[in-house]
Amino acid sequence: MSSALPATDGYRHTALTDLFSLKGKTVVITGGARGLGLAFAWAVAEVGANVAVLDLLDKPHEDFYLLEKELGVKTKLYRVDVTDYEALERTFDEVKKDFGSIDHCVTSAGVPKDKPFLEHTQADLRSLLSINVEGTFFAAQFAAKHMKAQGTGGSIVMIASIAGHNSCPGKSVSGYCFTKGAILAGCRALADELVQYNIRVNTISPGYILTDMTVANIAARPTILQDLPKNIPMGHIGDRRDLKGAIVLLLSQASAYTTGTDLIIDGGLVAH
Ligand SMILES: NC(=O)c1ccc[n+]([C@@H]2O[C@H](COP(=O)([O-])OP(=O)(O)OC[C@H]3O[C@@H](n4cnc5c(N)ncnc54)[C@H](O)[C@@H]3O)[C@@H](O)[C@H]2O)c1
């Protein structure tokens, strides 16, 4: 072995439970009032993180209020539209004041649009771009600014989609696909630029996971329910809990050597 390689200290490294711990860390989650965002909130709170949720909704799902009660972590809901640049920046400043630090950020706020490509209007595309791309971009930027100022590093996970990898059989979501592709491409650029501040940036690409968003999609196009399982190698739609391990992995020190990558959780759909 070359002497230029770093020395190792045997095999008795940090315990796995410590690597996966987020104890005392602050995680900001956009779109965390319900759906995948709230599932992420539960996952990180279970490993000790305090959670600041940023969302448009006045009233989050009732389980949001159980986080503090059942897991003993600090939580707070901030009502903000991620497309409002000034309000979003102010909200990140408030979180820093309220929680003392911003250590991790998950950008889960996002919307779909099931409409034929030939019928997408400029307003449709602008709305998708401003929520899914601009909202993600600036949430990541404001989080990274705080992490840089703190000098403590951090990690960011942006929620993309299999729609950034594939067409979505049975649906017409071209505008949505454009936005999720942008997040995947942007992740690699952010990972490259922010590594100097010890900030890691990764994405998760969920497949079809049952949330309010999916329920609304199915209501608008009931055939999805019959068609989808045929296209998914595992034969069924995913559940919110299927993403819990992934978010803790990518935010925590368990993935300390991972940046600029995408984790696909889709029952085998993209690989198929
Ligand atoms: N559910 C799926 O099957 C699936 C698959 C792939 C990707 N995704 C992505 O995962 C993310 C979460 O999806 P979900 O299924 O939990 O959807 P959801 O609709 O259940 O939850 C989205 C949350 O984002 C919030 N939000 C929307 N626009 C906002 C805005 N402008 N400002 C602030 N908050 C806003 C909503 O109020 C809601 O609480 C989205 O980015 C979505 O594209 C979901």
Automatic annotation (TrEMBL):
Gene3D superfamilies: NAD(P)-binding Rossmann-like Domain
Keywords: NADP, Oxidoreductase
One family name in Pfam for this protein: adh_short_C2
Entry keyword annotation includes Oxidoreductase: yes
GO molecular function: oxidoreductase activity, acting on NAD(P)H, oxygen as acceptor; oxidoreductase activity, acting on the CH-OH group of donors, NAD or NADP as acceptor
Superkingdom as given in the UniProt entry: Eukaryota
UniProt keyword annotation of Oxidoreductase present: yes
Matching SMART domains: PKS_KR
Stretches assigned to the Ketoreductase domain: 25-182
PANTHER family listed in its UniProt record: BENZIL REDUCTASE (PTHR43008), CHAIN DEHYDROGENASE, PUTATIVE (AFU_ORTHOLOGUE AFUA_4G08710)-RELATED (PTHR43008:SF4)
Protein family according to the UniProt entry: Belongs to the short-chain dehydrogenases/reductases (SDR) family.
Protein name: Ketoreductase domain-containing protein
Organism field: Helicocarpus griseus UAMH5409
Organism lineage string: Eukaryota, Fungi, Dikarya, Ascomycota, Pezizomycotina
